């Protein structure tokens, strides 16, 4: 009987089983989200105003003449973004939208690959199909494709920016940042990171690219001044629809202004402590952890305390989520992932039986998801600092880690990093 075991029960490791299960599922999810849900579209179409603006720009017509009193999607990109988006209007609307969805999917696939590589795993590891499966199971990726939004390219710019900073290609790091800022300046808070790390060259192209594109685009647009006089003031308002920021959510539900202000200040203070702790104890010991977690803290805080935070912005938190593979990550606790569920779930909570309750859960899930994620990261770092202070080691300077001490395996390896990246802190609590 023992001789038959190798035929009846062929050995297979988890590192082989996971890709075998997730690759076909993930690839079919990519097809479903893009070819079916994406092409079908929904009541919200973010691409239509972009196409209209690009068409008007190419034909010398006004771009910024929309009625901002309506709840329809509006064109909010600056003239530099209009210049970059103008090629989409060279063909008809339907084919342009399909092409935009296709390129967005390619960008997301590249993002999944780059994120996997950035954390030390290879294409043939179990991590790549897991990341891809997670990407396309979320609301943020699904609605980016369904609504045909620019977010996929912002995520690609974010990951390229972080990877180039890590590899000290400072001049090149400014290129993806500059291009995203020229279209959609949601990543602007991340310019704090090269400032803190004294990587001054990053600023060169990150600032020059949008300026040059603006100088070129401004005289080509017949109403560029209206972007300053009409669009910029609108961007500063906290609208009460399709807005999951604290101010937008509070305006929708009629929350008292003093409470909205108090919550915004509280999250800014939490972010300030988290950024200080990460800079103080991780910048020289684990730069990948510092950059990935700090970027997530900065962006999540911006979504919450800014004037506009939309649910599909959550894809920009993917680098933060990936740190769960690193020892010491503040993502190694269940409240953080409950927050991730809130801001990324594709589940709907509308109920025919409990109408009011389901409606409130649905309209609050992204806001409480971001909030819980921020609180979990803050508490994880705060409790570490309190423990360090009680033990009298809070004032110690962390030693600079050598390459051999790094928590990850070689970037080109497969699962060499698995044991060190996941084995030492499997039972991490919120306070550790």
From TrEMBL:
<feature type="transmembrane region" description="Helical">
    <location>
        <begin position="366"/>
        <end position="386"/>
    </location>
</feature>
<feature type="transmembrane region" description="Helical">
    <location>
        <begin position="21"/>
        <end position="39"/>
    </location>
</feature>
<keyword id="KW-1003">Cell membrane</keyword>
<keyword id="KW-0808">Transferase</keyword>
<dbReference type="InterPro" id="IPR018584">
    <property type="entry name" value="GT87"/>
</dbReference>
<feature type="region of interest" description="Disordered">
    <location>
        <begin position="401"/>
        <end position="432"/>
    </location>
</feature>
<feature type="compositionally biased region" description="Low complexity">
    <location>
        <begin position="413"/>
        <end position="423"/>
    </location>
</feature>
<dbReference type="Pfam" id="PF09594">
    <property type="entry name" value="GT87"/>
</dbReference>
<comment type="similarity">
    <text>Belongs to the glycosyltransferase 87 family.</text>
</comment>
<feature type="transmembrane region" description="Helical">
    <location>
        <begin position="121"/>
        <end position="138"/>
    </location>
</feature>
<protein>
    <recommendedName>
        <fullName>Arabinosyltransferase AftC</fullName>
    </recommendedName>
</protein>
<dbReference type="GO" id="GO:0016758">
    <property type="term" value="F:hexosyltransferase activity"/>
</dbReference>
<keyword id="KW-1133">Transmembrane helix</keyword>
<feature type="transmembrane region" description="Helical">
    <location>
        <begin position="258"/>
        <end position="279"/>
    </location>
</feature>
<feature type="transmembrane region" description="Helical">
    <location>
        <begin position="145"/>
        <end position="165"/>
    </location>
</feature>
<feature type="transmembrane region" description="Helical">
    <location>
        <begin position="171"/>
        <end position="193"/>
    </location>
</feature>
<keyword id="KW-0472">Membrane</keyword>
<dbReference type="GO" id="GO:0005886">
    <property type="term" value="C:plasma membrane"/>
</dbReference>
<keyword id="KW-0812">Transmembrane</keyword>
<feature type="transmembrane region" description="Helical">
    <location>
        <begin position="288"/>
        <end position="305"/>
    </location>
</feature>
<feature type="transmembrane region" description="Helical">
    <location>
        <begin position="200"/>
        <end position="220"/>
    </location>
</feature>
<feature type="transmembrane region" description="Helical">
    <location>
        <begin position="98"/>
        <end position="115"/>
    </location>
</feature>
């Amino acid at each position: 009987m023992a001789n038959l075991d190798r035929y009846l029960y062929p050995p297979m490791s988890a590192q082989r089983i996971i890709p075998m299960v997730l690759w076909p599922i993930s690839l079919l999810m990519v097809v479903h989200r893009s070819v079916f849900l994406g092409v079908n579209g929904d009541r919200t179409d973010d691409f239509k105003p972009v196409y209209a603006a690009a068409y008007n720009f190419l034909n010398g017509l006004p771009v910024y003449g929309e009625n901002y009193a309506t709840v329809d999607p509006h064109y909010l990109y600056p003239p530099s973004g209009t210049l970059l988006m103008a090629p989409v209007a060279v063909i008809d609307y339907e084919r342009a939208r399909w092409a935009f969805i296709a390129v967005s999917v390619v960008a997301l696939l590249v993002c999944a690959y780059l994120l996997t590589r950035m954390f030390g795993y290879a294409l043939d590891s179990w991590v790549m199909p897991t990341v891809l499966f997670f990407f396309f199971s979320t609301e943020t990726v699904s609605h980016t494709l369904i609504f045909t939004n620019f977010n996929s390219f912002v995520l690609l710019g974010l990951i390229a920016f972080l990877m180039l900073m890590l590899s000290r290609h400072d001049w090149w790091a400014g290129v993806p940042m500059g291009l995203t800022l020229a279209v959609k300046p949601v990543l602007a808070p991340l310019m704090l990171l090269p400032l803190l790390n004294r990587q001054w060259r990053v600023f060169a192209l990150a600032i020059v690219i949008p300026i040059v594109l603006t100088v070129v685009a401004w005289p080509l647009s017949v109403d560029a001044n209206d972007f300053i006089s009409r669009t910029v003031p609108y961007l500063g308002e906290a609208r009460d629809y399709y807005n999951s920021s604290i101010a937008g959510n509070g305006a929708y539900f009629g929350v008292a202004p003093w409470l909205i202000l108090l919550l915004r200040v509280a999250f800014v203070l939490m972010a300030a402590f988290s950024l200080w702790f990460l800079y103080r104890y991780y910048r020289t010991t684990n730069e990948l952890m510092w950059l990935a977690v700090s970027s997530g803290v900065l962006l999540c805080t911006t979504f919450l305390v800014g004037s506009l935070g939309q649910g599909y912005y959550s894809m920009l938190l993917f680098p933060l989520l990936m740190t769960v593979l690193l020892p010491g990550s503040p993502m190694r606790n269940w409240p953080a992932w409950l927050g991730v569920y809130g801001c990324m779930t594709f589940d709907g909570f509308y109920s025919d039986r409990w109408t009011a309750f389901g409606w409130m859960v649905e309209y609050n899930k992204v806001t409480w998801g971001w909030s819980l994620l921020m609180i979990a990261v803050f508490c994880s770092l705060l409790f570490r600092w309190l423990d360090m202070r009680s033990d009298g080691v809070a004032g110690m300077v962390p030693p600079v880690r050598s390459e051999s001490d790094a928590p990850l395996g070689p970037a080109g390896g497969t699962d060499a990093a698995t044991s060190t990246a996941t084995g030492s802190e499997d039972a991490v609590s919120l306070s550790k």
